[in-house]
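#dry-run=false #mode=assembly
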Amino acid sequence: MNKKQKKALARILLAATVMAALSFLPVSGAIRLALFLVPYWIIGYDILKKAGKGILNRQVFDENFLMAVATIGAILLGEYTEGVAVMLFYQIGELFQSYAIGKSRKNISELMDIRPDYAVVEQNGSVKQVNPDEVETGSILIVSPGEKIPIDGVVIEGSSTLNTSALTGESLPREAAEGDEVISGCINMTGVLRIRTTKEFGESTVSKILDLVENASSRKSRSENFISRFARVYTPAVCYSALALAILPPLASLCFFNIPPQWGMWVYRALTFLVISCPCALVISIPLSFFAGIGGAGKAGVLVKGSNYLEALASVKYVVFDKTGTMTQGVFEVNGIHHNKIPEEELLRTAALAEMYSAHPISKSLKKAYGKELDKSRVSDVEEIGGNGVTAKVDGKAAAIGNGRLMERLGIAYQDCSQAGTVVHIAVEGSYMGHILISDRLKPNAKEAIAQLKKSGIENLVMLTGDSRTAAAYTADELGIRNVYSELLPADKVAKTEELLLQKGEKGKLAFVGDGINDAPVLSRADIGIAMGALGSDAAIEAADVVLMDDDPLKIPKAIRIAKKCIRIVYENIYFAIGIKLLCLLLGAFGIANMWLAIFADVGVMVIAVLNAIRALFVKNL
Amino acid sequence: MKKTYKIEVDCANCANKMEEAAGNTPGVKTASVNFMALKMTVEFLEGVTPGNVMQEVLKNCKRVEDDCEIFF
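#status=ok
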C-alpha cells in the first residue's frame, strides 16, 4: 500500500470506530447531529471539497457530487447512520479499487520484467558497467551467467545455454555458441559470453517488445468505447430520474389523488438513486480485464498489440495459414535426385553453384546437401526470378534452376515428380538435366494445433502456399486441412485472402498466420495478422497484430482461447454490473431497496467486477 | 506528431474525462488515455508547439478532474 492508501485506510477505521461508538450513545436532537458530523467529516471531507470544486468548474455530474448530495440529503432527512455509512463504504470501495489496480499494474509489469538494468562493456581491455542506452552498435559486451543479455548481437566468444522463457513462455533453454545471433531479454545461464552488438538498445528486441506491450491497451476495443459512451449518458440520466422521482410522485399525489405527498419518503428514494448512479464498476473493470488479458497473453509468449485485436481474436471464424515455416519447420532436406542425365554429384553441384547467392531456404538446403566449398569464380550473371528460380552461367554454360514455372517460361520440357515435396528442376544450355526433390518436415505440434482449432469452433481452415500442388496436398492431408491453395505467388496470397474475407461474412473475423518473412502484405490485409517465430524478426513484429514469440503452432489455439476468456469476462462484467444496477434502481423506485442495498449496488458490484477482471490474467491452464 | 506522457489519476472514469477534455483542446488532433498504464498519447495538429498545447491540455484536464497530473 502506498501513502495515500494508508491514509485512506486510517480514515476509514477511525470513522467506522467513531460511528459504531455513537450509535450506542443515548443522545438525540441537535447534539446527535453534531456528534455524527464528526465521523462524516473525517471520512468525507475530501469528497465534499472535490464536489465543491466540481460545481465551480461546471462539472456537476461526477461521483463526488453524487456522493455529497446523497449523504447530505440522508443527514437532512435524519438518517445519520446511513449518511455516514454511504460515505464510508464509498471510500472503502475507492480504496479497494486503487489497491487492486496498483496490484495488477505491478503484477503485469513483473510479468514483462525483461528490461535489462545495465550492460557490461569491454573497452580497451577494461570492463565497465553502463546504461544500455549508451552502448553504441558494434561494442563488445560481456554477459556473465545469471545476467540478461541487454542488447541484440552476435556471440564472438564463449558458449552457453539461454533461458528465453521471459520472452517466449517456453521453458526449454536454447544453446548459443560462437557465431550465433542472440536476442536481448534472454537470460544467460551457464557460461560467460562475449557479444558484439548489432543494434542500439532502442532498436533491440527487448525495447520493441516493451514498447509494444506498454502501448497495447492504448488501442481501445469496441467494448471499452461502448462503456465510455454508456458512462457519459448513464450518470446524468440517473440524476435526472432521481430529481423526477423526488418531485413528480409527491406532486402527483398532492394534485390529482388528494393524498399526503410524503416528501421525505420520495426524497429518500431519490437519494438511493444517486448512490447507484456511479458507473465506476463498469468503467474500471472493462479496461482492467483487457489489461489483464494482454498481460496474461504476454506471459504465455503471445504479444497482442491492442485490446481491439484481443477482441477480434475472440471472434475469429476463419484461420488462414502459410505452410512453410508456419506449419512445417522450414528446414528443407534433399530427399532424392531423379531422372538425372548427368551424375548426381554434378547435378547437385550445378544447382548449389547457381543458387550460391540466394538466402532462400531451398538454396540453403542445396548448399548443405552439396556440402563442399563453392568456388565463386565459376558462377556469373546470376539472376533471381521471384517465385520461379535462378538463372546463371556456371562454368560458362547457361544453367536454369527452379520450379516447373521456370522451365515453362524457358520452354524446356521437364518431368514432374510423383513424390511430395519441393521439386527443383535443373536445365543446362536449354536441355533438361533432371530434378532434385527437397522436402520439409511438419512441426511436431502442428497436427495437434489444427485439431484444437477445429475444436474451438473455427469454421474454416485454409492453407495457402507457394509450394507445388503435390507438396501442399501432402501436408494438408497430414494436418487434416481440406482447403488448400497451392503454387501461389506472394500477390496471389493477398488476392486469395481478400476473396476469403468477402466470403466469410460480416461477423466472424479472419486471421492469417505466417512466419512474417515474406507475408507482410497478407498479415496487414487480414483482420488479424498473426506472426510466429518472431523472436529476432523485426519485420514480423512491425507487420503483425498478434506476435507469437516462438514458432510453436499450439500457441495459435492458445491465443484464441486467451482472447475468448478475456472477452467472456468483459461481457460477464458488463451484463452483471448493468443488470444489478438497473435492478436496484427499479427496487429503489418502488421503495423495496434502501440505501444499504444501493451501497452494495455501487461498491459491491465494483469489487466483484474487479476481482472477476483480474481472472483474465490467469492463462496457464487454458 | 504523436507524443506519450505519463499521467497520474485515481479513477478510471476520471481518466475517461481527461481523455475527452484533452481531445477537445485546440491544437490536439486526438488524445487517448490509457488508465492501466497511466499514459496519455496525444496526436498534435500540424505546426503547433506541443509544450504550449500541453499546458492547455493540463488546464482543461484539471477542470474536469481536479486531482490529476500530466508530466511533460
